[in-house]
Write a structure and sequence with these properties.
Layout: H1 10-17, H2 23-46, H3 55-64, H4 74-86, H5 88-98, H6 107-125
Helix pairs in contact: 1-2, 2-6, 3-4
Amino acid sequence: MQPGTEFLTPEECAEVDKALLTSHDKFTARVAIYALRSLKSIAQDHHISISALQPEQIEDWVYQDASLQQGIDQEFRRFFSQLVISSLKPLKQMALHLGTNIEDLEVPQVIAWYETEAKARLEQNN
C-alpha cells in the first residue's frame, strides 16, 4: 500500500539539506515532499486527481503510513495529518506557478519553490 517505509529517502534528505533554507523552511519542504509522494499514492489508489482528494482520505492514509507507526501516538498522527492536508496549499501554489498539475511536481521543483519563497521573504524584509 505505501511506497516505502521511510519518511523521505536519503536522496531527498540530501537535496533538502543542501538547499539554501532556514531550519523551519527545510522542515516545511520535507513535509511537502512527503505530502506530495503520499498525495500521489492516495489519488492513484482512489483513481482521482490530487485536487479531488478529501481531507478524510488523506487522514486515513497518514494513519496507515508504516513510516509513522513506531512509537507515535494518536495525537501526533492527527497533528501530522493536518500538516499533510495543509501542504496542499503550497503544492497548489507551486503547480500554478509552474503551470502544471500537482501530480507532475517533482522534488527538485518543490525545493526550488521553497528557496524562491525564502529569498522573496528576505528581500521583502530588507
